Amino acid sequence: MLGSMSAMTAEDGRLPKNTYERLVRPLLFSMDAETAHHLTVGLLRTASHFNLALRALRSFQPPS
């Protein structure tokens, strides 16, 4: 199974922590807070229409 996984995903299916720390966080923190908020909400709204994106977002859900 490991051979079929993308290089951009961790073993448990989530993005590696470094991807967030190195790319996403600096981008969002370089924006005005309101702009970053609207961008994030808009992207999540768009992602909610795609099954693949919903599966990827589940990796951020806390364990039950």
How many domains?
1
Shape: globular
Oligomer status: single chain
The biggest beta sheet reads: none
Order of helices and strands: HHH
Q: Indicate the low-confidence ranges by residue numbers.
A: 1-8
Mean pLDDT: 80
Per DSSP E runs of 2 or more residues, the count of β-strands stands at 0
Number of separate helices: 3
Radius of gyration: 14 Å
What does this structure look like?
This protein has 64 residues and is mainly α. The chain has one domain (2-60). It has helices at residues 17-29, 33-47, 51-57. The longest helix is centred in the middle third of the chain and has 15 residues, at 33-47.
In short:
With 64 residues, this protein is mainly alpha-helical.
